[in-house]
From TrEMBL:
Enzyme class: isomerase
Catalytic residues, chain numbering: 45
Pseudouridine synthase II N-terminal domain mapped to chain residues: 31-187
Species: Streptomyces gibsoniae
Name the record gives this protein: tRNA pseudouridine synthase B
Keyword Isomerase carried by entry: yes
Function: Responsible for synthesis of pseudouridine from uracil-55 in the psi GC loop of transfer RNAs.
Length: 301
């Protein structure tokens, strides 16, 4: 009798390589984990590297809730050139001498892009406009507008400013930056908007995501490492790291898994998604408080 392979339920924190789409990584993980049930909590552009959170088996149900959490990035913004894609993947559309841009001007431009802002996503992005992906409309040569969306940039810091010369001979400035932002924020749009504000154009030349919610780059593994040893964060640990934890007794556990809307302790009233655990420490369900009662979002127990 052959032993059946079972893949544990949980999260896999991948250090995505450059040149891979998020879908490529999911496809690779299906082979490594030997299961079709793999999904990701928010995409990462092909050029970018770093934290990509994948869910395996039952943990795929967590992904939609994890996708809404805060992200952190390290990147390089080149001032002095615009590109079609707002990053180094696209062809250059304009160049301007950026050597006269002062650090004070950079800091003032960054201050305008920090806090609660309205951002127009890049045209070459996966945003849907009337049901069609924006990048497809752009590829087909359509003229269209993407509405601005509210995003939060809680921190936008310049670590280093380097003088450089672009391939076409244009004097440019390379800014090494870190950004902490809400889900749905485009770092390449920040690069484009900073360049526009400074009058020289700008695009993103490198990007590394160092954190998604509580999951950091130091716990991420490359695809090669995962091929050698599949490291899965158990679903209970993953949920406890990401959401407020509500431990219930056996009776409440039974009622909650049967969909009964129990009264929630007041401390969880405005905490958003809450993870419920049984007396054995197993993840039972994700709930949110609606009129003081637990409304089930996803059941695991």
């Amino acid at each position: 009798m052959t032993q059946q392979h079972t893949t544990p339920d949980g999260l896999v924190i991948v250090d995505k390589p450059s040149g891979f789409t998020s879908h490529d990584v999911v496809a690779k993980m299906r082979g490594i984990a030997r299961t079709r049930r793999v999904g990701h909590a928010g995409t990462l552009d092909p050029m970018a590297t770093g934290v990509l959170v994948l869910g395996v088996e039952k943990a795929t149900k967590l992904l939609g809730y994890l996708a809404l959490t805060e992200k952190e990035y390290l990147g390089t913004i080149r001032l002095g050139q615009n590109t079609v894609t707002d990053d180094a993947e696209g062809e250059i559309t304009s160049s301007a001498d950026a050597s006269g841009v002062t650090r004070d001007a950079v800091d003032a431009g960054i201050a305008k892009l920090t806090g609660d802002i309205l951002q127009v996503p890049s045209k070459v992005s996966a945003i849907k406009i009337n049901g069609v992906r924006s990048y497809k409309r752009a590829r087909d040569g359509e003229d269209f507008e993407i509405p601005a969306r509210p995003v939060t940039v809680s921190s936008f810091t310049v670590y280093d400013v380097r003088d450089a010369v672009a391939e076409d001979g244009t004097p440019v400035l390379d800014l090494v930056v870190s950004v902490v932002c809400s889900s749905g924020t485009y770092i390449r749009a920040l690069a484009r908007d900073l360049g526009a504000d400074l009058g020289v154009g700008g695009h993103l030349t490198a990007l590394r995501r160092t954190r998604v919610g509580p999951y950091k780059i130091d716990s991420a593994r490359t695809l090669d490492q995962l091929q050698q040893e599949l490291t899965v964060m158990p679903i209970a640990d993953a949920a406890a790291a990401a959401f407020p934890r509500w431990d219930v007794d056996a009776k409440r556990a039974r009622l909650l898994t049967n969909g009964v809307r129990l009264e929630m302790p007041e401390e969880y009233a405005n905490r958003g998604t809450v993870a419920v655990f049984d007396p054995e420490g197993r993840l039972l369900t994700l709930v949110e408080a609606v009129k003081g009662k637990a409304k089930s979002l996803a059941v695991f127990g």
